[in-house]
């Protein structure tokens, strides 16, 4: 008897159509866990744009020697993918998500940069594409002086599930 193929959720199927595979959950860089379930909600810790355990860009968004807004937006989408991996690690199947309730995005910004909402659109648009109507959410996009490991962006997600 052949082993059963792992079931791929509809959400992961849509990500696959975009060429995205959920990564392993990123190991915490300090004293916390990647996600916590309480009731019917999953709260993720802030997710950095790790790809295969590494940051592919560092620095301030909008700075002359930093990261441009378009790159930062793509990094925010990577943060959202990492958040989905953290959520899956807690609930087992992303199709159980009934709503992304809130996204909070942090952008390490040059003092003159004011495009934080556009940067965090990368995360919001990825979640909308992956989850459809369940991906529509409330959001904050905040400019900050610095983020862990000199990351340009960090995203946290609150998801409701059944």
From TrEMBL:
The lineage of its organism: Bacteria, Bacillati, Actinomycetota, Actinomycetes, Micrococcales. CDD domains: YjgF_YER057c_UK114_like_1 (cd02199). This is RidA family protein. It comes from the Bacteria. Residues 12-160 form the Endoribonuclease L-PSP/chorismate mutase-like domain.
């Amino acid at each position: 008897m052949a082993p059963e193929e792992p079931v791929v959720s509809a959400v992961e199927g849509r990500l696959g159509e975009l060429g995205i595979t959920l990564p392993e959950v990123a190991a915490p860089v300090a004293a916390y866990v990647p996600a916590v379930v309480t009731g019917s909600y999953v709260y993720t810790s802030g997710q950095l744009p790790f790809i295969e355990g590494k940051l592919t860009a560092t620095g301030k968004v909008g700075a002359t020697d930093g990261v441009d807004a378009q790159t930062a937006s793509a990094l925010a989408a990577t943060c959202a993918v990492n958040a989905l991996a953290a959520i899956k690690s807690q609930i087992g199947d992303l199709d159980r998500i009934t709503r992304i309730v809130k996204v909070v995005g942090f952008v390490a910004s040059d003092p003159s940069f004011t495009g934080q909402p556009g940067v965090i659109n990368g995360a919001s648009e990825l979640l909308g594409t992956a989850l459809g109507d369940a991906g529509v959410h409330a959001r904050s996009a905040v400019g900050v002086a610095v983020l862990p490991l000199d990351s340009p962006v960090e995203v946290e997600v609150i998801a409701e599930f059944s």
